[in-house]
Fold this protein.
Amino acid sequence: MPAPSTITLGFTVFRPETAPFAARAMEGHDLIVLEEPHTPGFEEMLAGELPIDEYLMLTDFEFPEYATAQCRTLQALHAGGAAVLQVHPWMDELAGIHEFFAAGNGPGDIPTGGRPWAVYARERDWSAKLLAFYKAAGRKDFEGILEAVNNFAMADAAKISDMDRDRAAALADLLPARGRVYVECGVIHHDMVVLMIRALGHGRVRTIHLMEEVCLARHGRRRLIPPGDLLTFRHLLGAPRDSSRERLLAARAVVYNRLMEKEESFDSDSPYPHMDAEAMVLQIVDGLGTEQCRDLFGRIRHLSVRESLALVLQNSH
């Protein structure tokens, strides 16, 4: 009788500097499970029958540089005998809904009570809260912006929770007797730890944060968590409502978003440009109170990220 699976939950941020750490973490596993929906040409790319650049052109990848590096790793692992699967049932369902609409159907044509309707309804609420934040951000009402940020964080937490339950259920069905399994997880999906332990047992699940050691060595912290993620985690974990704390995290989040570089690659002398930039920005925002955030956001809201950061650093000297 085959031995039961053991799984590694590898928590990652999808940045080029993380790709080598992901490659090392995936080594020695019999099955690699990616946190992504099914994409056209995936099997052909794995087998080397479809060039990576052509494969990436078939789908609009959010982080193409990371995806390119990851594809090279996956090809090597696959050639060495590892199986590689894409498992993200929520995103697969959402893609099916988009195709359903593209065929001329509307929301009223989705049968209520089923999984497609549950996904659609959750995504509709999430999108509405995101749009409300964008509208609020264009106005000068700082309190309105903070309320919109917190409302979006609650919607985001609800969506993440549903996504994780769906993915954990799919993995639980997939994993028995699959040997050593590596499961890719975005850092916000920490519910996966409890869900997989509940499904498989504590002794069969281990977790790693891919850049933890280098983060600890460079910044004295095991991981860097932006204030917006902290706010979302509060709602994910069901923390008691605390309007003062939620306002503070929301205020720090809007300032963080104006200071943190969003490009996948940018000029830097650091081997870990995003990590070091994030550590610097967090050092700034973690020391700000709500009123300081209000004042600073008013001064940088119309500036670029680099202009905003230059202004803040200039004023700190």
In short: The mean pLDDT is 93. The radius of gyration is 21 Å. DSSP finds 14 helices and five strands in the chain.
